[in-house]
Design a protein that fits this description.
The protein contains two helices and no strands. By secondary structure, the protein is mainly α.
Length: 66
């Protein structure tokens, strides 16, 4: 496709079209509102507790196989 371009400007236009997001996804993108600080802390604490429980489970498996 780039070989058909006659100059750098046309190559840039081709590149823009090739790498553009699909038409349905263009525009209308806005950042989601940030979660309240309390909610983020609670979900983080729950995730860390789950991670610690899984870590304990895996450590127990490793020690049991020795």
């Amino acid at each position: 496709m780039y070989a058909a371009a006659e100059d750098d400007a046309e190559r840039a236009r081709i590149r823009t079209v090739l790498y553009a997001p699909p038409r349905g996804e263009r525009g209308g993108r806005r950042r989601a509102a940030a979660a309240p600080a309390g909610a983020a802390g609670a979900s983080t604490a729950a995730l860390l507790a789950q991670l610690a429980a899984e870590d304990e489970q895996v450590s127990g498996m490793r020690q049991g196989s020795r």
